[in-house]
Design brief:
single chain; 453 residues; alpha/beta; four-stranded mixed β-sheet; 13 strands
Length: 453
């Protein structure tokens, strides 16, 4: 199947380009992403080239394909190609950065509540295997950006008062659960002012929100291309400006690109010797050859970008549609359930929510949640209040109903005193999909309230 070279209407007409089961309603793009037929064709073409002549492909041609792919994705985020490499996913990318920072005694990493759970596990593991001390900035959504900044600066001050060197800070572009746009631009600037390395988890970033590395100037930025950029799974972009490339000496696991500690910092981004057939710098080469794996997703990125241009109309058109649909869809679900969408308090008429300025929104369900075992107050407005044990059983039931009986899925999780659902906007969805979802959630929530789980 080839690209039509014409703009296809968004919504259900767009689904002809995607590989979904026609009986399935794909409402959870935010978790695993999805990619269209033309991108699958390109990936299979690359896999076949690899299989035909493995040595020629892996030793020579893969470098050519990767450089073309990295050049296109670098242009998308306004960054030099030799500051952009590929890693398997954002979790691995962040783990690679944190491992390479080689934290010493009295060095501190600060991160925020709502960090992705796998990354927090990685931080705990790193504390167990290194002198790292981590501090968390506690907060709940909604929160004013000025208050979030105040809490961050206070955490930095307290760590320094305790004799720690605050070396780096980890934060999101868009948090996963609950889904909310994080003020990453502000926090990057604050880190720069405080002399702290900024590490941005943009797992929900590229393809969802506009990104400009020249303007943002983070110290490290990672983003999953397979979530919102229509690439196969898994492929993550790792951006590291030249000023920090000397800090990254190994990928995980350590492999052929390893750079010994004795290597001078200026050698990392220096151009290769004219007689060297490998056109990559040391930094680029570091991430070129790792453990044997199928890297066809990496070289499929240009096909995804072509699809986005020629079929969907380009980045701005895609992002605007998905953002507007996520906001409208969330409102439809909230209105049907008699609840609300997570956003700032006391928004003025016509004022746009910063938290909702992305392609995922978080909607409160009419189901309360209490952490205290055995204590079950009636939360006003809730159809039922669940304890943690009840929630676990209800969650299994809700998953089974959605995936098995309704052939769809949306993430549901407790947050504070309520259960919330995350909705994602995408070009193959339309208003009617969310009207249908509202009916499904109404039915499933009523069944939970009636203790059918």
């Amino acid at each position: 199947m080839t690209i039509d070279n014409k703009i296809v209407p968004f919504g259900k007409p767009m689904r002809k380009h995607w590989m979904f089961d026609p009986l399935y309603t794909p409402l959870n793009h935010g978790s695993y992403g999805a990619y269209p037929f033309p991108v699958r064709e390109k990936r299979r073409e690359m896999q076949e080239l690899n299989d035909l002549r493995p040595d020629s492909y892996i030793r020579v041609r893969q470098t050519e394909f990767l450089r073309k792919s990295r050049a296109e994705v670098a242009a998308l985020i306004n960054a030099p190609m030799d500051e952009c490499v590929y890693v398997k996913n954002s979790t691995t990318s962040i783990a690679t950065v944190l491992y390479n920072l080689n934290f010493q005694e009295k060095e501190c990493l600060i991160y925020f509540d709502h960090v992705y759970g796998a990354l927090e596990n990685g931080i705990v593991s790193l504390e167990e295997h290194s002198p790292l001390q981590a501090r968390k900035v506690s907060f709940t959504f909604p929160i004013e950006e000025s208050e979030l900044e105040r809490r961050f600066r206070e955490t930095v001050r307290q760590a320094r008062d305790d004799g720690l060197r605050v070396r780096a800070t980890l934060f999101d572009t868009v948090t996963s659960s609950p889904a909310a746009r994080f003020p990453f631009e502000l926090m990057t600037a604050v880190c720069r002012e405080e002399g702290i390395l900024s590490i941005i988890d943009g797992a929900h970033g590229i393809g969802m929100i506009p990104l400009d590395m020249e303007k943002l100037q983070p110290d490290f930025f990672v983003s999953n291309c397979h979530k919102w950029l229509y690439t196969p799974r898994p492929v993550s972009l790792l951006y590291c400006p030249k000023r920090n490339q000397h800090l990254l000496r190994t990928q995980l696991p350590t492999s052929w690109g390893f750079i010994p500690a004795s290597t001078p910092a200026e050698a990392f981004s220096a151009p290769p010797h004219p007689k060297n057939p490998n056109p990559n710098t040391l930094f680029e080469h570091l991430f070129q050859h790792g453990a044997t794996s199928d890297d066809s997703a990496y070289v499929s990125v240009p096909a995804a970008l072509k699809f986005r241009r020629e079929v969907c109309g380009g980045e701005e058109v895609i992002m605007s549609y998905c953002r507007a649909l996520a906001n409208k869809g969330a409102d439809i679900v909230a209105n049907a359930l008699g609840t609300n969408v997570l956003q700032e308090r006391n928004l003025k008429p016509g004022q746009k929510s910063r938290i909702r300025d992305c392609s995922m929104n978080t909607v409160r369900l009419p189901i309360g949640f209490v952490n205290e075992e055995g204590y079950k107050p009636d939360i006003p407005g809730s159809w039922v209040t669940l304890s943690p044990k009840e929630w676990t059983r209800a969650w299994v039931y809700m998953q089974r109903r959605m995936m098995g009986d309704f052939a769809t899925f949306v993430p549901i999780a407790p947050y504070g005193s309520w259960l919330y659902v995350r909705v994602s906007g995408q070009v193959y969805l339309e208003r009617s999909d969310f009207e249908w979802l509202a009916d499904v959630l109404h039915e499933v929530c009523r069944e939970v309230a009636d203790k059918k789980y």
